[in-house]
Protein backbone atom coordinates (compact mmCIF):
# COMPACT_ATOMS: atom_id res chain seq x y z
CA UNK A 1 0.00 0.00 0.00
CA UNK A 2 1.30 3.35 -1.02
CA UNK A 3 0.10 6.68 0.29
CA UNK A 4 -2.03 8.73 -2.09
CA UNK A 5 -0.35 12.08 -1.84
CA UNK A 6 3.43 11.83 -2.35
CA UNK A 7 5.43 15.04 -2.28
CA UNK A 8 8.77 15.18 -4.05
CA UNK A 9 11.95 15.94 -2.10
CA UNK A 10 13.40 19.44 -2.48
CA UNK A 11 16.24 20.02 -4.94
CA UNK A 12 19.98 20.20 -4.12
CA UNK A 13 19.55 23.28 -1.99
CA UNK A 14 18.72 22.36 1.57
CA UNK A 15 18.32 24.30 4.77
CA UNK A 16 21.92 23.32 5.77
CA UNK A 17 23.47 25.13 2.85
CA UNK A 18 24.54 24.78 -0.71
CA UNK A 19 26.86 22.20 -2.22
CA UNK A 20 30.00 24.35 -1.79
CA UNK A 21 29.18 24.76 1.92
CA UNK A 22 28.79 20.99 2.31
CA UNK A 23 32.07 20.45 0.48
CA UNK A 24 33.81 22.90 2.86
CA UNK A 25 32.36 21.08 5.87
CA UNK A 26 33.49 17.75 4.42
CA UNK A 27 37.00 19.09 3.85
CA UNK A 28 37.11 20.43 7.42
CA UNK A 29 36.05 17.07 8.84
CA UNK A 30 38.59 15.29 6.68
CA UNK A 31 41.36 17.60 7.94
CA UNK A 32 40.22 17.02 11.53
CA UNK A 33 40.29 13.24 11.11
CA UNK A 34 43.76 13.41 9.54
CA UNK A 35 44.99 15.58 12.43
CA UNK A 36 43.56 13.13 14.95
CA UNK A 37 45.26 10.24 13.17
CA UNK A 38 48.62 12.02 13.35
CA UNK A 39 48.11 12.79 17.03
CA UNK A 40 47.16 9.17 17.71
CA UNK A 41 50.28 8.02 15.88
CA UNK A 42 52.47 10.30 18.01
CA UNK A 43 50.79 9.24 21.26
CA UNK A 44 51.01 5.54 20.44
CA UNK A 45 54.66 5.91 19.42
CA UNK A 46 55.45 7.67 22.68
CA UNK A 47 53.63 4.96 24.63
CA UNK A 48 55.53 2.27 22.73
CA UNK A 49 58.87 3.89 23.58
CA UNK A 50 57.88 4.21 27.23
CA UNK A 51 56.78 0.59 27.47
CA UNK A 52 59.98 -0.59 25.76
CA UNK A 53 62.01 1.40 28.29
CA UNK A 54 60.06 -0.12 31.18
CA UNK A 55 60.47 -3.67 29.86
CA UNK A 56 64.21 -3.14 29.38
CA UNK A 57 64.66 -1.82 32.93
CA UNK A 58 62.53 -4.59 34.39
CA UNK A 59 64.55 -7.24 32.57
CA UNK A 60 67.77 -5.73 33.94
CA UNK A 61 66.37 -5.83 37.46
CA UNK A 62 65.23 -9.42 36.97
CA UNK A 63 68.68 -10.48 35.79
CA UNK A 64 70.29 -8.85 38.82
CA UNK A 65 67.75 -10.46 41.12
CA UNK A 66 68.17 -13.84 39.46
CA UNK A 67 71.92 -13.78 40.02
CA UNK A 68 71.38 -12.91 43.70
CA UNK A 69 68.88 -15.75 44.07
CA UNK A 70 71.28 -18.15 42.35
CA UNK A 71 74.10 -17.11 44.68
CA UNK A 72 71.87 -17.50 47.69
CA UNK A 73 70.53 -20.90 46.64
CA UNK A 74 73.95 -22.30 45.83
CA UNK A 75 75.75 -20.88 48.83
CA UNK A 76 78.10 -18.77 46.76
CA UNK A 77 79.00 -15.29 47.72
CA UNK A 78 81.00 -13.58 50.41
CA UNK A 79 77.96 -11.95 52.00
CA UNK A 80 76.35 -15.27 52.84
CA UNK A 81 79.64 -16.73 54.07
CA UNK A 82 80.18 -13.74 56.35
CA UNK A 83 76.62 -14.02 57.67
CA UNK A 84 77.03 -17.73 58.45
CA UNK A 85 80.33 -17.09 60.22
CA UNK A 86 78.73 -14.37 62.33
CA UNK A 87 75.88 -16.74 63.22
CA UNK A 88 78.39 -19.44 64.19
CA UNK A 89 80.34 -16.98 66.34
CA UNK A 90 77.13 -15.80 68.01
CA UNK A 91 76.12 -19.42 68.63
CA UNK A 92 79.52 -20.13 70.18
CA UNK A 93 79.16 -17.28 72.67
CA UNK A 94 75.43 -17.76 73.33
CA UNK A 95 74.53 -21.36 74.14
CA UNK A 96 70.78 -20.77 73.87
CA UNK A 97 71.24 -20.01 70.13
CA UNK A 98 72.74 -23.46 69.41
CA UNK A 99 69.35 -25.18 68.76
CA UNK A 100 68.59 -22.65 66.03
CA UNK A 101 71.92 -23.34 64.33
CA UNK A 102 71.24 -27.06 64.60
CA UNK A 103 67.78 -26.62 63.06
CA UNK A 104 69.31 -25.05 59.93
CA UNK A 105 72.27 -27.47 59.77
CA UNK A 106 74.87 -24.82 60.52
CA UNK A 107 77.84 -26.42 62.30
CA UNK A 108 79.15 -24.69 65.41
CA UNK A 109 82.12 -22.38 65.02
CA UNK A 110 85.53 -23.84 65.76
CA UNK A 111 87.26 -22.55 68.85
CA UNK A 112 88.98 -19.26 68.24
CA UNK A 113 92.79 -19.38 68.20
CA UNK A 114 93.37 -15.65 68.34
CA UNK A 115 94.54 -15.75 71.93
CA UNK A 116 97.83 -17.68 71.59
CA UNK A 117 99.75 -18.60 74.69
CA UNK A 118 102.66 -16.36 75.62
CA UNK A 119 105.15 -19.22 75.31
CA UNK A 120 104.47 -19.59 71.58
CA UNK A 121 104.97 -15.94 70.71
CA UNK A 122 108.28 -15.03 69.10
CA UNK A 123 110.67 -12.90 71.04
CA UNK A 124 110.98 -9.34 69.78
CA UNK A 125 114.16 -7.50 70.56
Write up what this structure looks like.
- The protein has 125 residues and is mainly α.
- The protein has three helices and no strands.
- It has helices spanning 19-73, 78-93, 98-103.
- The N and C termini lie far apart (134 Å).
- The relative contact order is 0.04.
Give descriptors for this structure.
125 residues; mainly alpha; 3 helices; rod-shaped
Order of helices and strands: HHH
Mean pLDDT: 81
Helix-strand category: mainly alpha
Radius of gyration using CA atoms only: 42 Å
Most strands sheet: none
Proportion of residues in extended strands: under 5%
Number of strands: 0
Instruction: Report how far apart the termini are.
Output: 134 Å
Number of helices: 3
Uncertain spans:
115-122
Oligomer: single chain
What spatial form do the alpha-carbon principal axes imply?
rod-shaped
Helix content: 55-70%
Which helices and strands, and how do they pair?
Elements: H1 19-73, H2 78-93, H3 98-103
In short, what is this structure?
The protein is an all-alpha fold.
Amino acid sequence: MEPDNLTPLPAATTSAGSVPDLQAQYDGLRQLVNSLLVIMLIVSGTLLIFLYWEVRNTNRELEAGASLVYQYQHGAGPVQDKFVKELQEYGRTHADFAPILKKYNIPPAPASTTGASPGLMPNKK
